Amino acid sequence: MLTDERHSFIIEQLEQKNTLTVQELVEQLGHSESTIRRDLTTLEDLGKLVRIHGGARKKRRPVDEPTMDEKTVKFMQEKEKVAQLAASLIDDFDVIYLDAGTTTYAMIPYLEGKNITVVTNGVPHATLLTDKHIETILLGGMIKQRTKAIIGSIAERQLNEVNFTKAFMGMNGVDITQGFTTPDTEEAAIKRKAIRQSNQSYVLVDVSKLDEVSFSKVADIDECTVITNQLPEKQQRLKEYTRILEA
After folding, report:
1. Angstrom distance (rounded) from CA 133 to CA 110
2. How does pLDDT run across 62-117, given as a tens digit for each residue?
3. Global pTM?
4. How many domains would you assign to the chain?
5. Disulfide engineering: 247 pairs with which of 11, 20, 57, 85, CB 3.0-4.6 Å?
6. CATH of the domain at 14
7. Are 100 and 170 in contact (CB under 8 A)?
């Protein structure tokens, strides 16, 4: 196999598997270990992958944080299905934490009529929840302008004093190795605390967030159940590492 063909094969495999070992590539391509290592070095120099011990991984794309308005128009149908499934898990008398974010916001119409208490750090969430006559507690603290999420030490201290039957979280990245991640360290701290104060925690994401990694880690992959859309074939292996509910 020619050099360019090997390089194309390696990049295609990384798109499907995220990580590859040198030994795998030796067996698949039928070339020596030294040739494969040179290929990986060349591809790293070209910015196509990142070398790791014994192999390579896909290069992470920077995950910027869109505004809430920008998030709302993306994957609307997928988010609606995820939100509906998440809301079906809530029972009367639950005390739930509803994280800021567009997918958690989409849950609120499906909560109408339920006898529950909702604690949230989402300013738009609190408004809609009260419009639906749902008992609502809004955390205090600083409002993050881009996402309308309340963050900071005041909100963290408040979370120390409450416990939840269930928490429903938004997230920017879900990855087998890096776990659940988000761009903002202060928002990550709030998410982390809410998960720890909950009996059960659910992460609501559309499939575009799978195999993505953002700046700040919130939790390990096995700490929360993931609620998402039907998993593509290349992401089925997530089921080996955490519980998945597919909408």
Report:
1. 13
2. 555 555 555 445 568 889 999 999 999 999 999 999 999 999 999 999 999 999 99
3. 0.76
4. 2
5. 85
6. 1.10.10.10
7. yes
